[in-house]
């Protein structure tokens, strides 16, 4: 199995590009954000906990998302690999992912990091808010908290994966098709 980590700040276009990547490379898409929103919609205990945190722009506890990921790995088959979108988002999550994969003598294949400048994050998320109506996209204050959370908690993963020789960054500016082609050029190498 291949395990790709799709990385990048909120609004970088991970969800959009993930759709193209799973089709071309026969991968199963796991978006922790989407899984959490499903729990919220179902009104589960986990959903109620997640709702309060997500609407403030904070992360949910590491153990929660780690459990969701392991569950997906166990229950999905018939694909070439997995595309992890929005996970790992903290160093402990990255270490947990390595531990989970080590149980079956596997490891992360590569990261694909979609990079855009901070100014563009706000602009793109505000555009998405009009289309998708996500609660955490509605206020500038919450978006700012997410940008700070990204810099403090998620950005250290760049060094983590660079040290392992697994960090690959592409320019996330330009049209959806331009970014897609840059990603495909990179993915064709793995
Ligand atoms: P975006 O990348 O645009 O912020 P996501 O859909 O990936 O959107 O995530 C939405 C929210 O869900 C995050 O702000 C966070 O609160 C929560 N979340 C998603 N993935 C994780 C994760 N791996 N760890 C902790 N919280 C997460």
Q: Tell me about the biggest sheet?
A: 5 strands, parallel
Helix/sheet category: alpha/beta
The unreliable regions are none
Shape: globular
Strand order of the largest sheet: 2-3-1-4-5
Percent strand:
5-15%
- H/E series: EHEHHHEHEHHHEH
The CATH topology annotation reads as Rossmann fold
Look at the structure and give the CATH class. Answer: Alpha Beta
Describe this structure in words.
It is a single chain. The protein has 190 residues and is an alpha/beta fold. It has a single domain, classed as Rossmann fold, CATH 3.40.50. Helix content is 57%, strand content 13%. It starts with a strand and ends with a helix. The mean pLDDT is 96. Adenosine-5'-diphosphate binds next to helix 2 and helix 3.
């Amino acid at each position: 199995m291949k395990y790709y980590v799709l990385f990048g700040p909120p609004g970088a276009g991970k969800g959009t590009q993930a759709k193209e990547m799973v089709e071309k490379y026969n991968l199963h898409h796991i978006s922790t954000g989407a899984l959490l929103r499903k729990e919220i919609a179902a009104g589960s205990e986990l959903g109620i906990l997640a709702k309060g945190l997500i609407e403030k722009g904070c992360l949910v506890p590491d153990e929660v998302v780690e459990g969701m990921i392991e569950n997906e790995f166990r229950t999905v088959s018939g694909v070439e690999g997995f595309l992890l979108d929005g996970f790992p988002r903290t160093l402990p999550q990255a270490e947990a992912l390595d531990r989970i994969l080590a149980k079956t003598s596997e490891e992360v294949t590569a990261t694909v990091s979609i990079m855009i400048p901070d100014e563009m994050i706000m602009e793109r998320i505000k555009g998405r808010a009009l289309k998708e109506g996500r609660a955490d996209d509605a206020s500038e204050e919450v978006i700012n908290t997410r940008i700070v959370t990204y810099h403090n908690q998620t950005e250290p993963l760049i060094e983590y994966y660079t040290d392992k020789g697994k960090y690959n960054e592409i320019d996330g500016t330009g049209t959806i098709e331009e970014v897609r082609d840059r990603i495909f050029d990179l993915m064709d190498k793995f």
